[in-house]
């Protein structure tokens, strides 16, 4: 085809497109006058630059009154484990897309398979799409976990176009994709794993999920900084974001909700990794309380999402012989850890500038609850003076820059959990409240805390505070 023919074809196509346009395609936003072509000035009201395409203007019928709308409860799929239902806000909503992320080898695929098994046992078949492993590798893991293999279907493919084409002929209760970073769309021009490819694949999956009313669980990787790999667009696109984490030296794993359009965020589920898979640990709090007969060890009841959780804080303060002392923290933000050290140095005249200081929240648990400040301060003071704190004692409070102890939210819920665990003593801020079945010790500032710790001696560790 020569150049002249191409020009004629282009002009013909343009003419057809113009002819197919509906009449009155533009409207004056000032008076409502309609025209088939755009005009600089409205012939009816003489307004300038007031014509807009009708496609760009919402009609009155598109604007709805909130009071006239009725709430339609979402259809949900329920897991056998109640904690999993809670982290989704009451179960997986049909037509929703969830992103599950975490470090490599932490157990994301194991968790996804177990979630698929629980859904498949109650509803229709679940499809597991593996873009990283072969079907035989997934089947081997399923046998080790002793899952219901008859109701879990497997596809080992990374071409999204082929996958979506195959899904149109089947109906599944849920679809798992492992992983979103390894999918590619053959209709796109970018390379596998690029930001544009991930964005394009996520958009098509989200659209298909809404049209088919099938929930999707997407497994995602994290980068070196610990955040979810890929464009931030994915986190905005999906309905829920779950983060799976844990200490490799520990069997404890935590699943935390970072985003949820159908429920509360920051919910937490704790698992224990065993040979048969992830299980809910029994008496985790009692297990934590058993190992506490050391200086530098304290306890606190934190609020993770909507549930109280007992956490153990342990610290080591030791003389440093280096020019720059070592400061390490695990399970809490490092900058906040350094802030508490600075507060102790300022208001208690404790010299920590020449000390190596290590802090750890045991069990691989990470928390951002400021109610743990008082427990951290007590742990550091205890380790500094080598004084053991009774294990039947918890510390709940926020440390201000002035050295005062502030109250934290849901203090009653925390104390109720402490009573259930058999804890006898609780140090809190000087808030006006009474509580049965537990001894409350109200302190105003860190100096009061220091006075209490200096009273304790190792031989009194198992006796009642007096």
From TrEMBL:
Source organism, top-level taxon? Bacteria
Per the database record, which ranges form the RecA family profile domain?
Answer: 73-222
**What residue ranges carry the coiled-coil annotation?**
none
Q: InterPro entries, per this entry?
A: AAA+_ATPase, DNA_repair_RadA, P-loop_NTPase, RecA_ATP-bd, Ribosomal_Su5_D2-typ_SF, Ribsml_uS5_D2-typ_fold_subgr, Rubredoxin_2
Which keywords belong to this entry? ATP-binding, DNA damage, DNA repair, DNA-binding, Hydrolase, Metal-binding, Nucleotide-binding, Stress response, Zinc, Zinc-finger
The molecular function GO annotations come to: ATP binding; ATP-dependent DNA damage sensor activity; damaged DNA binding; hydrolase activity; zinc ion binding
Q: State the signal peptide span.
A: none
Could you give a single Gene Ontology term from the biological process aspect?
recombinational repair
Question: One cellular component GO annotation, for this chain's record?
Answer: cytosol
| NCBIfam families named among the record's database cross-references | sms
Q: What this chain does, per the record? A: DNA-dependent ATPase involved in processing of recombination intermediates, plays a role in repairing DNA breaks. Stimulates the branch migration of RecA-mediated strand transfer reactions, allowing the 3' invading strand to extend heteroduplex DNA faster. Binds ssDNA in the presence of ADP but not other nucleotides, has ATPase activity that is stimulated by ssDNA and various branched DNA structures, but inhibited by SSB. Does not have RecA's homology-searching function.
Task: Give the protein family.
Answer: Belongs to the RecA family. RadA subfamily.
Q: What is this protein called?
A: DNA repair protein RadA
Originating species: Thermodesulfobium acidiphilum
